[in-house]
Every structure is written in C-alpha cells, then in structure tokens.
Design a protein that fits this description.
This protein has helices at residues 7-30, 47-56, 82-86, 200-208, 227-235, 254-262, 273-277, 294-306, 308-312, 329-342, 351-356; strands at 64-68, 91-94, 105-109, 129-133, 153-156, 163-164, 169-172, 186-191, 215-217, 237-243, 265-269, 286-287, 321-324. It is α/β, with parallel strands linked by helices. Bound molecules: 2-acetamido-2-deoxy-beta-D-glucopyranose (6 copies).
C-alpha cells in the first residue's frame, strides 16, 4: 500500500473534522466572538459564508470540488449555481482556500500571478489539477518565470486548449429571418483604447488613412468610449476595423463578434482568413490579407459604399445565423468543474512551450 493519503481518506478526514467544525463554528458565531481567530490565516469569505460552504459540503464522494484561487477579473459571483442554474450536477465550487487539500481542481487567473508566492503551496494532493486561465494574447501576457511546469489544464480561447471558451460564437437560428442592417451615417470606424505605435495595426492604419476617411474614437482620439456609446457608434458605421492588438493563432476577440452582432461589417486584421472561416462563413467579413495593399482595401470599401446590393450581401448569413455571447463566468466555472469530473486522466503541460513558443 502506498503511504500517500488517498483522496477518499483525505475527504473522510475533512468531512469528519468539518462536521465537528460546523458545530464549533456555529456555536462561536452564536456568541459572536470579538476576534476572528478562527479564520486565520486565510482571508477568503465572510465567516457566515464559510460556515455555509463547509457545512454544505456533502459527504458524497462523487462531488468534484473546484477551488477558485483568484476570482477572474476580480468579479465576484455566486457559486451554488451549477446544478440549480445550469443543470451541471456533482460540482462543488468554493473560494475558501482552507479547502485546498481536498480540492480536485484549483482555478487560477494568470493575470494575478506576479510571482510564485501568489500560487498555492506546491505540496498538492496527488489527484489535484491546477487550471491556468488566460484570455490575453501571448504578446500581452507576462511570461512569469517558474510557472511553466505547474499547471495541468488550460482554460483559454485557443482551439487546442483543454477547456476552450472563445470570445463568441455563431449559431443557427431555429428558422429563417429577414435582416436589414441598421441605418448608417459613416463609412469606416474604429474605436481603439490600447494605442501603441509598434502594433502592426497602427502601421496599417497610418497607410489606410491616406486613402479613405476613417472615423476614429477611443482614448487616443478624444476620449474613452464606454457603455451604450460603444454600440451606438459601431452600429452607425458600414464597416468597423476589427484590428487585433497582436496576431496569434486563434486570437479573435470581441472586436470581431461585436460588429457582427450589431449589423456592421468587420474588416479584420488578425490570424489568417481560415481561422475566421472556422467561426463564420467567409462572406460575412473582409480580411486585410485579401488585398495587396491598404490602398486596394480602401478602393474596395469605397466601391462597396456606392453599391448597396454588394454591401448587403455581407449580411446573407444573418438569414440563418446569429451571434451568441460567450458564457458568463459562473457558467464557465461550472464548465471547468464538469471537465474535471469527466476527464480524470493524469495531465501535465509545459505552459511556456504551449502558449508562447511558436
Ligand atoms: C480581507 O477581505 C476584506 C473584505 O473582502 C478586504 O477588504 C481586505 O482587504 C482583505 N484583506 C486582505 C489582507 O486580503
Ligand atoms: C458517481 O458518478 C458516476 C457517474 O458520474 C456514477 O456512475 C456512479 O454511480 C456515482 N457513484 C456514486 C457512489 O454515487
Ligand atoms: C494541506 O496539507 C499539507 C500536507 O499534508 C499541510 O502541510 C497543510 O497545512 C494543509 N493545508 C491546509 C490549508 O489544510
Ligand atoms: C511577489 O508578489 C507579491 C504580490 O503578489 C509582492 O508583494 C512580493 O513582493 C513579490 N515578491 C517578489 C520576490 O517579487
Ligand atoms: C456618451 O456620449 C455622450 C456625448 O457624446 C456623453 O455625454 C456620455 O457621457 C457618454 N456616455 C457614456 C456612458 O460614456
Ligand atoms: C499536475 O501537474 C503537476 C506538475 O506537472 C504534476 O506533478 C501532477 O502530478 C499533475 N497532476 C495530475 C492529477 O495530473
């Protein structure tokens, strides 16, 4: 027999201590102790939440526990949703770091890892998997030293991620529908906040603007655009420059899905056309690679401006399809847990090689 603690014995130990702990904690809470010594060293959730978490932890061995080490983008959402809201059963989500030793998975947002001290202790139970979450492109993700051989699963926009969530998707309608694009009073627009001279898209823009008028918005062009103004501006233009900040495999963001959803034709700069055509039919967008130069692209856009029939062809897809927003964070978290439940195999990965190396 191995001397390593099995998951079953760890869970049994946990369950028996936590049942005792529940009583103790409830007792202490009843008397409202003045110090919160019970909660050291972890500052996770309010004491009442912790009692609820621990006490609702069922003795069912089949329950898969996912520990949220970092709330993605500091969002804070309800965790008792998988079964109730999404019909994903057998998942127990928690943000209580005291449950680390019995967690089947630990969910970590890359953005918050400034160094190794942010991560859980590396003496992890043998059944536990660490899930690496990141939605930025490799060019905009810091390559933290020492983390390349720590993770087991990737949660990412890439097609070859273990758990993939893209920035949006196109889905078939139940039937057919007529679609008329909203009224337009501008030809080409771009709302851009992250303006860097070294971005390839800026070089392309500098050439393109010599040949066609571009309506520019965003921090670099007179002020941040947010909320409904973002949608209103995008909707009022025939074309929108869906220029990604960097060009990487499968890196196709909301800059593409948003104009599609409001009835504006995206002009894309990003991965090759084939990558986009995996998401939507090829005549729904314009790719800069289809043109030998920015001038040729400008000429084509000017031609479409004069030819309504040609322009409307870009909306043929809307007859049969619609844009679906991607899953909200609570659902995504349930999806990760469900993956852990279904795929039990041993798994390691070299993160730097997978994500950064070409
Ligand atoms: C502990 O949590 C409280 C409330 O969420 C927060 O205001 C405080 O900054 C946290 N302290 C530490 C050390 O993280
Ligand atoms: C655990 O779940 C699996 C499938 O998810 C099921 O076949 C099995 O009967 C369950 N075991 C117990 C003890 O509930
Ligand atoms: C988890 O287990 C390790 C080793 O068994 C122990 O050192 C550590 O204190 C435990 N952590 C928690 C939060 O219970
Ligand atoms: C590691 O990051 C933390 C913040 O998460 C910071 O306080 C600490 O100084 C960093 N340590 C090193 C060695 O850089
Ligand atoms: C939208 O734009 C108007 C005028 O351009 C401005 O007054 C308003 O504050 C903007 N709204 C948001 C949410 O930015
Ligand atoms: C997860 O990855 C770590 C680091 O490579 C490895 O030591 C561990 O055995 C893996 N665990 C599972 C359950 O795959």
């Amino acid at each position: 027999m191995s001397s390593l603690p099995t998951k079953r014995s760890l869970k049994l130990l946990f369950v028996s201590t936590s049942v005792a702990g529940c009583f103790a904690m409830l007792f202490l809470m009843y008397f409202e102790p003045s110090t919160s010594w019970l909660l050291v060293p972890v500052n996770s959730t309010k004491p009442s939440d912790r009692v609820r978490n621990i006490c609702s932890y069922k003795t069912n061995e089949n329950l898969t526990t996912l520990l949220i080490w970092s709330w993605p983008f500091n969002l804070n959402y309800k965790l008792n949703v998988c079964s109730a809201k999404y019909n994903i059963n057998g998942c127990f989500l928690t943000a209580d770091r005291n449950l680390y030793n019995i967690s089947d998975g630990v969910f970590i947002h890359h953005k918050l890892i400034s160094n190794l001290s942010y991560l859980p202790p590396n003496q992890r139970p043998p059944f536990q998997k660490w899930i690496w979450m990141n939605f930025e492109s490799p060019s905009h993700t810091s390559k933290v030293p020492g983390i390349e051989n720590l993770f087991n699963l990737t949660f990412n926009y890439r097609r070859d991620a273990d758990i993939r969530i893209s920035y949006g998707s196109i889905q078939a309608l139940d039937g057919e529908q007529d679609f008329v694009p909203p009224r337009k009073d501008k030809l080409v627009c771009w709302i851009v906040s992250n303006w860097r001279e070294y971005h390839f898209r800026v070089a392309y823009y500098n050439e393109l603007r010599k040949h066609i008028k571009l309506h520019m918005y965003g921090r670099h062009f007179g002020g941040r655009i947010s909320g409904e103004n973002y949608t209103t501006i995008m909707t009022s233009c025939k074309f929108y420059l869906s220029f990604e900040n960097s060009i990487h495999k499968d890196y196709i963001t909301e800059k593409f899905f948003k104009p599609l959803s409001v009835g504006t034709v995206p002009v894309v700069l990003g991965p090759p056309r084939q990558d986009y055509e995996r998401l939507i039919q090829g005549d729904a967008f314009i790719h800069v690679d289809d043109f030998a130069s920015p001038k040729e692209l400008a000429d084509y856009l000017l031609l479409l401006d004069k030819n309504e029939e040609m322009y409307l062809k870009f909306f043929d897809w809307r007859r049969y399809f619609e844009v679906k927003k991607n899953a909200p964070w609570d659902l995504r978290t349930c999806i990760i847990c469900n993956h852990l439940r279904r795929y039990k195999e041993y798994k390691t990965l070299n993160l730097h090689k997978w994500f950064w190396d070409k």
